[in-house]
Amino acid sequence: MSNDNAPPLYPLFADLRGRTVLVVGGGAVARRKASALLQAGARVVVGAPALEPELRALAQAGRIAHLPGRFQPAWLDDAWLAIAATDDDAVNREVAAAGQARRIWVNVVDDVALSRFQVPARIERGPLQIAISSGGGAPMLARLLRERLEAQLDDSWAALATLLARQRGRIRERWPEPGARRRAFARLLAGPLQGFLRRGRHREAERLLDAELAPGTGNAAATAGSVALVGAGPGDPGLLTLRALRLLNEADVILHDRLVGEGVLALARRDAELVCVGKRAGDHGTTQARIHALMIEHARAGRRVVRLKGGDPFVFGRGGEELEALRAHGVDYEVVPGITAALACAAYAGVPLTHRDHAQSLRLVTAHCAASLDGLDWPALAQERQTLAVYMGVAMLDTLRTRLIRHGRDPATPFALVENGSRPDQRVVVGTLHELPAQAHRHAVRSPALLILGEVAALADTLHWFGDGPLSADSPVHRSTAPQAGTAKPAPAPEPALERAA
Ligand code: SAH
Fold it and tell me: What confidence tens digit (pLDDT) does each residue in 289-299 have?
């Protein structure tokens, strides 16, 4: 919910050329505001009893106008915008009130409540501008982000933006359809153009662009649709690959699973069509057929389709089936791997999946339903000094425990059960195999959760670093155990044999 500390804001870039902007105040802050406004071509009027030296010089040179004395509402008469930059709270308030009465946009420096508009932190690369705002709630954060982007975006962006702006008319003529234009841009940016500019070889860059813009240059590949099967990772957008990010930025349509985090979807191109094709328990077959049909239909219509899956598309993700369907219909595809839940959950729980002293191998297992459990090689799974990463197992923990112990796994084998791995609400429950179902039930662990079972799981206690520390048998319970879909089932009374073993 918003409040006065961080109101919802609508960003805009204003053309102030020749328009009067009033700056109230004559000190260093007013000077900074005045000079930024001058850069934007505004007609700057500074109102203050006295001006600091630089402002005075500007006034003497006729670059700004000076209104001497204390603020009076009539100063706003010609203004389109006003900035109150005095250290006198009463004056700032008067400017805000007078602006309000005249419907003139007023910014009071460092005062969100009094401001009707805010000035963002910004990065400029020629005509390209990035404005960053925290809504006034955390300006430092916006500034820090600005520093980072400053470091990342070199000056070739300015040259590129200038070059493309100069050819804007020809570009639109060459690719009238926005989708084709975007693809052409993506291709241009992926090519050597920016590299030329970065190395100061502007003529070569221009020649390259010229060739692209020449009518009749064949670009058959740009009009054929295709599907990228992309791994979105476990939820933290920072775990996306750069390649995935680029494809999300170029996509026309994104068909995503329910498991894909909102933070990841927020990185998609703004006008990409987002379609949630997530499966709910019970409707797998029909939904899968529909997903195949959608991918094929969109690709045939010439669209760039991203089929976005949680984790990695080839780990319990039906990626193989989807590619088979695409191949059968002659649709072009590529695959971008993602960080699968086992890797992410292990990392974010501080559990090395292999360790010279504890585990020499790792098995990825799905425990989706009783039938999938029957298909597993239990004697092999029960062996020591290996790690099991069990997907989709929340509802099957009791069966897992019973079978593993029956096939010889030590009931004292440590586990770490990671719920919402890598996400802000991650929880890690630890204990021993013997108490696994009871612990999961006690802390009401819900899907999505990944079970890590093996000697290495004990390291979560010492190596954890993300979120709160692991919950164990003595941790207080914070969540009600009222039954919910996808929640760990209560453990039946332990079998007598287990009681003895434990
Ligand atoms: N292709 C996905 C797995 C899909 S199966 C991947 O590579 O990760 C869905 C199962 O993955 C869930 O039931 C859960 O066991 C696991 N999972 C996916 N994301 C998870 C997360 N953020 N935290 C914990 N487990 C997760």
Answer: 999 999 999 99
CB 278 within 8 A of CB 258: yes
Consult the annotation and say whether 312 binds a ligand.
Answer: yes
Best residue among 260, 316, 335, 336 to mutate for probing ligand 1, ranked by most atoms within 8 Å of CB = 316
Q: How far does residue 369's CA lie from ligand 1's centre (Å)?
A: 15
Domain spanning 20-119: CATH 3.90.180.10: no
Largest CA distance in the chain: 95
Distances in Å between the alpha carbon of 154 and those of 44, 128, 148, 158, 194? Answer: 31, 12, 12, 8, 10
**pLDDT tens-place string over residues 190-223:** 667 887 887 788 898 999 899 888 876 654 334 4
Nearest to 97 by CA among 82, 78, 119: 82
C-alpha 452 to ligand 1 mean position (Å): 12
Looking at 1.25.40.10, 3.50.50.60, 3.30.950.10, 3.40.50.170, the CATH number of the domain 342-463 comes to 3.30.950.10
- Residue 489 known to be catalytic: no
Q: What are the DSSP calls for 258-294, one per residue?
A: TTS-HHHHTTS-TTSEEEE----TT-HHHHHHHHHHH
Q: Indicate if ligand 1 lies below 6 Å from the C-beta of 311.
A: yes
**Among the listed residues 318, 187, 316, the one whose alpha carbon sits nearest the alpha carbon of residue 255:** 318
Is the model's pLDDT at 281 over the cut of 60?
no
d(CA 484, CA 273): 32
468 is catalytic: no
DSSP 66-124: EEESS--GGGGTT-SEEEE--S-HHHHHHHHHHHHHHT-EEEETT-TTT-SS-PPEEEE
Q: Select from 279, 322, 368, 391 the residue to mutate for testing ligand 1; criterion: most ligand atoms less than 8 Å from CB.
A: 391
